[in-house]
Design brief:
Layout lengths: L13 H7 L4 E5 L4 E3 L7 E7 L2 E7 L6 E8 L6 H8 L7 E4 L3 E7 L3 H7 L1 H27 L2 H16 L3 E3 L2 H8 L3 H13 L3 E4 L2 E4 L1
Antiparallel strand pairs: 1-7, 2-6, 3-7, 4-5, 4-6, 8-10, 9-10
Helix pairs in contact: 3-4, 6-7
């Protein structure tokens, strides 16, 4: 299996992915392309081959659409929410959008039982992804409940920079406000303070970690 920092395993092994390719099809995505929509039927489970996918929920109950980032899917990972929804024939509770140019292996839901029988590594893989996603969702709850907006914003910028492998991220203040579920004016004020403190450098639609 691929190795994460330390002894923790992450993602599916190249061998397992190659074995799974005979069950599904590969789909190429450009940045911003929709992979999974909220309230849609789940017919296939995605495994990320290249790039990264952003998974979030939206709320438009007050005619003011708000987004909440849940986690990113990286190479070798799958969306456990889609897996569970597909297994139990439920509609998707999340939206997944390509964070960059990406390739995704789509495994039909009806093949999951057969894969579980034929490849014991698949079960281990799903449990590891479930454990990882559970921890990330706890981090989201903790951030919303206990952290200030500036802490959450720095955490988000740092994570997005790690995903892209670049200390400069391209994002507008409005988009960042949407990710954090707050107002644009709040984001702009906090970013200016962070720039004054020497934490970030601001440019047109970009933020650079210093």
């Amino acid at each position: 299996m691929n190795q994460q920092t330390g002894s923790e395993k992450k993602g599916a092994s190249d061998l397992l992915i190659n074995q799974l390719k005979k069950y599904g099809e590969i789909r190429k995505l450009n940045e911003g392309d929709l992979l999974i929509d909220e309230n849609s039927r789940i017919f296939s489970i995605p495994i990320i081959l290249k790039g990264s996918i952003r998974v979030y929920q939206t709320d438009n109950s007050n005619d003011d659409i708000k987004e909440m980032l849940l986690y990113y899917l990286q190479e070798g990972e799958t969306c456990i929410m889609s897996f569970l929804g597909g297994m139990y024939n439920e509609k998707s509770k999340v939206k997944a959008v390509a964070n960059e140019k990406s390739e995704v292996l789509l495994i039909p839901v009806q093949k999951l039982s057969q894969i579980a029988r034929e490849y014991p590594d698949w079960i281990d893989y799903i449990f590891r992804i479930y454990h990882q996603r559970f921890r990330e969702l706890l981090d989201v709850v903790n951030a919303v409940a206990f952290k200030k907006v500036d802490e959450r914003m720095l955490q988000f910028i740092t994570r997005k920079a790690e995903i892209s492998g670049n200390k400069t991220i391209l994002i507008t203040h409005e988009e960042l406000a949407g990710e954090l579920g707050t107002a644009r004016v709040v984001v702009s004020r906090l970013l200016k303070q962070m720039e004054k403190d020497g934490i970030v450098e601001l440019g047109r639609n970009r933020i650079t970690l210093l």
